[in-house]
User: Fold these one by one.
Assistant:
Number 1:
Amino acid sequence: MNSTPLKMVVIVAEPVLETRLVTELRGLGATGFSILEGRGEGTRHSHATDVPGSNVRIETIVSDEVADLIMAHVSEHYFANYSFMAYVTDVAVARGAKYV
Amino acid sequence: MNSTPLKMVVIVAEPVLETRLVTELRGLGATGFSILEGRGEGTRHSHATDVPGSNVRIETIVSDEVADLIMAHVSEHYFANYSFMAYVTDVAVARGAKYV
Amino acid sequence: MNSTPLKMVVIVAEPVLETRLVTELRGLGATGFSILEGRGEGTRHSHATDVPGSNVRIETIVSDEVADLIMAHVSEHYFANYSFMAYVTDVAVARGAKYV
Amino acid sequence: MNEILRVNLLSPIALAFVLGVVARVIRSEFSLPKEIYQGLSIYLLWSLGLQGGVELAHATFDEIARPAVVTLLIGCITPISAYLTLRYFGRFGEADSAGIAAHYGSVSAVTFIAASTFVKGMGAEPEGFMPTLLTLLESPGIHIALAIGVMRSGSKTRPTSELLHEVFTGRTMVLLVGGLIVGFLIGEKNWSTIEPFYDTKGAIFRGALCLFMLEMGLLAGARLGDLKKVGPFLLAFGMIMPLVHGALGAWLGSLAGLSVGGATMLAAMAASASYIAAPPAVRMTLPDANPTYYLTLSLAITFPFNVLVGIPIYFKLAQMTQGVP
Amino acid sequence: MNEILRVNLLSPIALAFVLGVVARVIRSEFSLPKEIYQGLSIYLLWSLGLQGGVELAHATFDEIARPAVVTLLIGCITPISAYLTLRYFGRFGEADSAGIAAHYGSVSAVTFIAASTFVKGMGAEPEGFMPTLLTLLESPGIHIALAIGVMRSGSKTRPTSELLHEVFTGRTMVLLVGGLIVGFLIGEKNWSTIEPFYDTKGAIFRGALCLFMLEMGLLAGARLGDLKKVGPFLLAFGMIMPLVHGALGAWLGSLAGLSVGGATMLAAMAASASYIAAPPAVRMTLPDANPTYYLTLSLAITFPFNVLVGIPIYFKLAQMTQGVP
Amino acid sequence: MNEILRVNLLSPIALAFVLGVVARVIRSEFSLPKEIYQGLSIYLLWSLGLQGGVELAHATFDEIARPAVVTLLIGCITPISAYLTLRYFGRFGEADSAGIAAHYGSVSAVTFIAASTFVKGMGAEPEGFMPTLLTLLESPGIHIALAIGVMRSGSKTRPTSELLHEVFTGRTMVLLVGGLIVGFLIGEKNWSTIEPFYDTKGAIFRGALCLFMLEMGLLAGARLGDLKKVGPFLLAFGMIMPLVHGALGAWLGSLAGLSVGGATMLAAMAASASYIAAPPAVRMTLPDANPTYYLTLSLAITFPFNVLVGIPIYFKLAQMTQGVP
Ligand SMILES: Nc1ncnc2c1ncn2[C@@H]1O[C@H](COP(=O)(O)O)[C@@H](O)[C@H]1O
Ligand SMILES: Nc1ncnc2c1ncn2[C@@H]1O[C@H](COP(=O)(O)O)[C@@H](O)[C@H]1O
Ligand SMILES: Nc1ncnc2c1ncn2[C@@H]1O[C@H](COP(=O)(O)O)[C@@H](O)[C@H]1O
Ligand code: NA
Ligand code: NA
Ligand code: NA
């Protein structure tokens, strides 16, 4: 069966950022996203949340272009001040048209 | 150390489908799976669940053949009517024999 | 925008192992990790946990070398006796320097 | 009547529900943690079952027989009346008609609880075996409606055994039926040691119910946006169908010899639409039925309608059928 | 004084909190599930609001007017006093100063509850409308401090509407304001049917509060390690600022005609630092303010200080200002 | 005897447990949310500790000394007796024998609670310091068994400090020991303000216990399938070992001067197998011990055995040893 090669952008960030990020991602061209709540540790140890270390993972499957846009956007706006991680990985998606 | 290149099929679907999907995956040759509960947004906005947008993510590591079987199966049976996403990604698995 | 190709090691294991694994990963050179709680099924069906099948997923983004170290380490110490899965996947990480 | 309505609208349950809706309308992101919401519903159902079982032990077969029969009758009539209305007046497809009918053929336990709280507040103590009737009404309607849907829509049938298993081993059934049996067996003495915690007239039960209604309001509020999607026909259906089924319930209940309180509760059950047992069953059995329709109807239209204005109306109807001034 | 302190330190709330801290100190991994912790705080706030509303229905406008005014006054003074102290004595940056000030300008509901439990234990029944004052003090301080921060630090402003919406639709506001309205509307009769569950003087409320304080202790304990990061100035600030604001509250409260109990609670509110509403608002509006500072201050310094020793002191102050022997 | 058994089997706790097992047997997917289950166990342990502490304040050293000594004695004997039985009669490997022994050397708090509920129902009020004994029995057995296992199986030892820390800072210890201390310090007056919520004879505690037992039944039921995996020897071991340890407990308890109620509870403790503290400790220290064995034994065999039939037997034994007719 035919699947489309696309990018999945994964963002792991402080929970307070969720709503804003989701809005911005849609603005940059994401057609949807999957969200998981987890915890973690990195170099920056403090969050504005009562449960230390809890974070939210936002995944969105997008075209290469949109992936670049998103990575550029978050690097510019969030890396300096927030507990934040972002990476891109390759995925082969069923009915890929839906996501571009 | 030696690891085997395999496929990981990731399915994000409505919670009601979990039991059925798991049974079907086993039938198609999956040796196991990991399940995470999350939420999300896509193009289809409604679920048969009291918590809107909640979904279940089923991941299974399988051989290329089984991966194709699974993708073909879900495309045929679930895309039309359910809130559903499926993609495949490459993974290098320790003691890969266990999963094929 | 420039992102660095790195490895993401994903470990899915029994919850009891979390603390020990996290310490060992740091020891092997991981700079951080993301943790998700989930459930799953594999070949080994029993855990030392009151909720059967529950597991913890530890993800860490590292350099190729550290990834190999981790895979070797876990293969040696956990595969024999624990409900355990580990795989490596490729990721393109923003501000990659942070993770090596 | 207005007086009764006012009393009901100013009850903690009704106001907590309204607050939840309002919170969603002002786009608050507040909500009860999913696990707390589930925990509360488990507690409410379990209490309902336990107390129902204790009181069932006092009931004679004769007392229950006729009410039980009319309850099952309602379980057979309501799904069909709902189906026919949707299919032929509403011109909906087979799947949607049957899918929605499955919800109205079953029952909403929270509406049941709201009704019992209301009638007790009105001093019209209902029969102790009402929870038993609740369990009888839970599933028949779902099966009948789905059978119709599967037969008439082309949709590939799934093994009925699977569906039966699903419905009979669901949360509601385990807790209600299980609670009934446990309550039946433990007897008064044991019951007295746990009663204050489980008593459905007690402050703990009612307090927990308020919190639960707050979340129900949030869930209903979250679906208000879908109201325009369902269109005027379903909007009307979601309020008129309950009235029809409610009247039927009040009438049959009175025929079967239920008190005003009991008849009101049977009416509320008949009028209510399930949103716990029915949705997953319908989703799996009739995949092409649109969930937005049946979920919006039961959660955002019929449930609020019954809790806010329906129940007092059924109470009045029950009084009238029984010639109470 | 010592006697009062001893009594307070041996209260279940204080000891449960200390136990939590100790558990963290001995590196126990125990903690309440996040959802239970949230459920408890929802229950506590909701009870507070409901009962506050019921009692508000008894209060006349004249009784509330002056206390309300001084409360809003405190909401305007405390963020500024905190900001100035940090900026000019502490030489902190704009963002940090304003960010921390936002916390001290707002209020900690749990400190409020601890204070009410304390004064009631002391037999100094506070005014029934105190929860209403709590809602008044919740947000002004946050907005004032953030406004200062945004104007003076270069930080890019975000739409104020967004911030207002965030703060006014947050969990605390929905439950407190919502509870007040619901409680106000249901009236005594309805209230009596749920009172034992929600009564803030009752065993259920106090029992739940103990469990909540246990988790608060765990959260505070988890931040003890950050104490050295905040440095001596903030350490002192976290205990002296509350005393200053507490004295102000006790004095203004007494001026406004509050009883000793009421004045003590107003003092505790003024002295307390928010750790639910303020942190996210600050995090989003002043990203370059260091969360370690404001979270450690409010959770690990000021909260314990108030609960363990502050409240009894404010009580004494209130007695003195009102010339009670 | 039959009468006592019947009474016990018809208790809400026992029936709730059975219901849970049945729900699993009919393959229901129902279960309590994990967080609710944990929240309930936290509440139960914390109540146990608090009340135990309050009552401990009344006990003299002399009263406790001898019971405490025999409890520790039991903590040393039971792991060894279990280990030897498994190793030499059962021919199990070192790791499995020691791993299972660690569970029987420790104690199940829920069995303790079930026993206390039972004896209080029987009118045999136990000593107030029983929860103190519970904390004494929690850990020694685990350490002894694991020490044996580590020495004799080849398994690489981990730092004992790590293990000690694990066990002593676990949930059970924090809540029980912490609760004891807090309860001890707050005194009667404070206790009375929260008693109805925490009273282990009260309706809230018992009601919560029923819900907890329901989930215990679900957990036990989920392991029924493993019964065939463990084989006939362990099946017998899971019921005979408790009887032996129970008899020992009843006898030593009576020797130490405990009342019938107290001796019954000590017996139940001795007979019970831990399934919270022991499993992770064993899993980490003896990785090659098969979890299916020890989990199935403690959860699906010994726990139900004790709760359903064991406790009444220990009660009878205690009566006999103390010559009560
Ligand atoms: N090396 C890493 N591997 C995986 N996740 C990481 C890593 N570093 C940081 N994270 C995640 O990113 C979040 C923010 O990291 P930081 O900005 O370093 O505090 C952490 O809470 C972790 O969940
Ligand atoms: N572009 C996307 N990226 C990531 N996840 C998505 C995307 N679109 C949909 N999903 C996920 O797939 C689920 C079903 O999507 P849909 O079928 O479009 O409703 C959603 O709940 C999301 O969790
Ligand atoms: N084929 C698979 N695909 C995805 N996850 C798996 C697979 N096999 C095992 N797992 C996960 O790894 C955990 C341990 O597996 P096991 O060691 O086989 O019991 C399981 O709980 C699953 O979450
Ligand atoms: Na109905
Ligand atoms: Na303040
Ligand atoms: Na034991």
Note: The longest helix of chain D spans residues 291-321.
Number 2:
Amino acid sequence: MSDYTPTEVMTVSAARALSNDDVCFVGIGAPSAACNLARLTHAPDITLIYESGTIGTRPDVLPLSIGDGELAETSLTTVAVPEIFRYWLQGGRITVGFLGAAQMDRYGNINTTVIGPYGAPAVRLPGGGGAPEIASSCGRVFITMRHSPRALVERVDFVTSLGFGVTGTERAALGIATRGPALAITDLCVMEPDPETNELVVTSLHPGATRAGVAEATGWDVRFAAALGETAPPTEPELATLRDLHRRTNAAHAVSP
Amino acid sequence: MSDYTPTEVMTVSAARALSNDDVCFVGIGAPSAACNLARLTHAPDITLIYESGTIGTRPDVLPLSIGDGELAETSLTTVAVPEIFRYWLQGGRITVGFLGAAQMDRYGNINTTVIGPYGAPAVRLPGGGGAPEIASSCGRVFITMRHSPRALVERVDFVTSLGFGVTGTERAALGIATRGPALAITDLCVMEPDPETNELVVTSLHPGATRAGVAEATGWDVRFAAALGETAPPTEPELATLRDLHRRTNAAHAVSP
Amino acid sequence: MPDFVSLPDAVAATVRDGHTVALEGFTHLIPFAAGHEIIRQGRRDLTLIRMTPDLIYDQMIGAGCARRVVFSWGGNPGVGSLHRFRDAVENGWPHPIEIEEHSHAAMANAWAAGAAGLPFASFRGYLGTDLPSVNPRIATVTCPFTGEELAAVPAHRPDVSIIHAQRADRAGNVLIEGIVGVQKEAVLAAEVAVVTVEEIVDDLAAPSMNSTVLPGWAIDTIVAAPGGSWPSYTHGYSHRDNAYYKAWDEISRDRARFQQWLAESVMAAT
Amino acid sequence: MPDFVSLPDAVAATVRDGHTVALEGFTHLIPFAAGHEIIRQGRRDLTLIRMTPDLIYDQMIGAGCARRVVFSWGGNPGVGSLHRFRDAVENGWPHPIEIEEHSHAAMANAWAAGAAGLPFASFRGYLGTDLPSVNPRIATVTCPFTGEELAAVPAHRPDVSIIHAQRADRAGNVLIEGIVGVQKEAVLAAEVAVVTVEEIVDDLAAPSMNSTVLPGWAIDTIVAAPGGSWPSYTHGYSHRDNAYYKAWDEISRDRARFQQWLAESVMAAT
């Protein structure tokens, strides 16, 4: 089955990185799809937490927003938003936090605030939301984003969420004990931090992607791991499950209730 | 009807000082009896909050402890204990807090911690519980206690809960905006703070009590208000309601469930 | 006991030009009807607090109600931008607005501190981010026991908070179910609290003694506003109108189209 | 998922001499069965945290388990003194104990801070009282915005917390109803959390999605201990045995009478 999109590869790759024992703080969009795909395939007991306060939620349809009714109705329990951020996120109970990014640099620092100067932005982005503390409080951070030289940049215009800092060493210097960006999955490849320098290096190319293509689509002089892998293509069950999920979701979101 | 006890006069007097609009933080013992007597007589809509987390509770039987099941079952809502102390008490929503005391001085400073030195106590009392913050966060504080020279003392051995401070001026000096001890009701009399000095002065004698008797039972050189009143004796409905409440309570507490 | 009044009367009595106002609700229970009434009554120079400005503040900003927005995530969730919010920030239309930008953790903690009567909230946050450099209302405190430096933000204490909830009883006690968000905190942190509800009932019918119930004496005004959360939703009464959230992208993208919508869907409505 | 084991196995696997241990429950849900098992296993030098030591710590102190007690109200509620606690503090019997004394507000905030992974809690408290002068673990922090000085206490972070709850399902998710106290905070603040329950069921049957439910993955050990809260109570399963609380006054007043009770009612029981 070769008929799949780069976004599908990205989502499937992210899903595969999750296990039954993970407790995920889930963002909207690709992360939500990846987490629920994992739950519907190889990780049925994975715990999904949405920042709206739903713990252990098992939605049949992906939410459009972070607080759709489906999330509460299928949750083990739904708590107040201050509690989610204090007891569950800051309390250190989340193993994996998912982040998206408008810009990311080689050390996994993320910008979702502004393009251009903060006081006179060319583009005002939505802002940090839960991301600044997800980045520091979750055991590991997974980043999913489209691969383009405007998105994977030499230097982010604004650090909304800390990766490894501007030199790759700031995380430790700030006394942050969590791992930080452990995996960046784009529509072209998988990147992981170099164990020595924390620079994100390409560790696996998605089917059809090339070194040259990735290098061209990256705003910094991207490095490739010595043992560069190739991402296994989505399996038929993975694709079928993901597409069913999207089909149900699109049908549910298309019409006013 | 002259057949009533000094404790009954104390409880009835405390109940009368409460209104329908009050939100009371209720302690165990005499305060609980007074608050529920008020609710069962002239103040049916009074709000009673117990520090165990029960808000708007309407027990049919007085609790023995501060968290008996009756309190939750008859509550409007029951919240976690951190919330009670943060959102409701510290949040400034309580109009009247009730305190008891092992020792109280002329400025309404209260000791429920130790008799004797803290490090080598003659008597180790239960301690502060909710009282230290009830004393500062409630709009007004009502104190109920037995009148004796060992209880109403020149100087408390330990300040568990602030009244007006050792000179009567410390409350304002600490920037505390709440009123503090507004009423002390013993089994002999009612005391209220002098508007100028904040010293508790006797404003009403209970039926049968005398100036000489009160002076003898007070450990400091107690003063009497110029317009010294006499406490109206308990009415028949007040006494009947209070005794019914105690009868139900004693029956409920006498046997193991 | 709170007053039971109409929505126009509630807004007229509580919201003044220059006020700091919060219309909260996390995806769920967003008080759109109240926001539209504030637009209709022409309020100006408001400081608007919300974790997620959402369509409701996009509409109020586009209508010119806002002078300042205090927020942590300003997008149309799952759809894209808040075009009216962006137009105000990027181009000063209909007039420039100030922003005070936080993270969700900071906003949630600031709500809890406001409800608790504290002047500030401390939490482990903003580590290594640029937000403290652009927001002077992000400070630090040091733990007196461990020496750890923590982030600190001022408590939210709005003049008026407005929330939507499932129902109130005749004494004004209010039940909130489902995603409870920061609804309780917004009410308890405010000088004046207004609650719009789907219905006013004889019996609140809370499913448990531990249900989220706000006592009537902690609320100033109750308004019966059935459907008052649309296109957000009220658990047990309605579903989120996700199609409308998607349609808003087109309505809000263009100033003229937005103004047409405003005239037809808000100003002409009652 | 937590381990499902017997009470002796749970205590043997989790509670060590010298540990800081909390058996919480505010009047309601006090884990007496677990406390008795700790006594039977002869644990020593424990630091015991509880807002209200109650009969359970009176018994553990009298049995010689405690080196230090962290508390805010040490009485037999509505009855009088905790005689074993007093005997230890006043007379050093069976051996001297240290005390760390707080107010309820401080303890509740310290639990919330522990659950939240913070090093300390700040609150408006202890104003004008003598407690800070006898407890070095009461400090202050200053609001960076208003200059107000607030009280600060270290977060509770016990090695082991043990609570009692209504029921668990087969995945170890736990439902708590009624007076929820600081049960959730005690579990989340601890290194290791043990929950004793009235029953283990197929369906938790929580009355609402907003019910207090602790996920199984946040708990280490579940123990079926029906009646394990007696003479405290479990809402929906039992009533508080107020007559026993009154009877404890006589049992505990005298050392020999207490030791007889200990031998017959704890050591000889299983």
Note: Chain C has a mean pLDDT of 97.
